[in-house]
């Protein structure tokens, strides 16, 4: 299984719009370090059987897919319905045209319901073969139950994202937890035995809706994955600072990063 980090930034990206010169607000991040330039959080999984699985469709999706040469996949998993994770949904039309059919959209019934309210046209019968608009087939998922996506067993689990609930994703020894500030006990159990965990770490100090550095260190001690990769990072999280200060077994993601893991078992 190959994991491509399409984006690892927060809802405003890094840099955020603005700045005295109009070229962005960088906060504590060094603007001369390319790995501090972060688009909105999303990853892509390419499984050993060829299946491609996108997680979230943020507003930077077109540039992200083009930048990493990704043009075919049949599945997308939605973690929640915030704009920085769904606003690029219309860009999926180009993928529909490549694969010649609708894309399967997985998520909780609540998340898919909200997407259907806001982007109802995307879930109408598709316009094969021309795809005048993006076309998705809703595939509701029950949390903490195994679901077959692309021929592999995935488990989606509940996360507290402040005032809303988000969805964490596990496949084999890999898990992805964007937009999370607290984990229910049942979800902690879903994370036992991990090798690699990509997890939200928006800033160094406490935040009401996102994990911060000390919170991730608490989870590290509790869950004990072999590797933690930080994502959904804001302008407080400078690449150079993290290189010198993160403990062993913890590292920062960067847009364009990729890594491979043993392929998980196929779904039954």
TrEMBL record:
Alphabetical list of InterPro entries matching this protein: Metallo-B-lactamas (IPR001279), RibonucZ/Hydroxyglut_hydro (IPR036866)
Organism: Acetobacter lambici
Domain of life of the native organism: Bacteria
SUPFAM superfamilies named among the record's database cross-references: Metallo-hydrolase/oxidoreductase
Protein name: MBL fold metallo-hydrolase
Ranges of residues in domain Metallo-beta-lactamase: 39-232
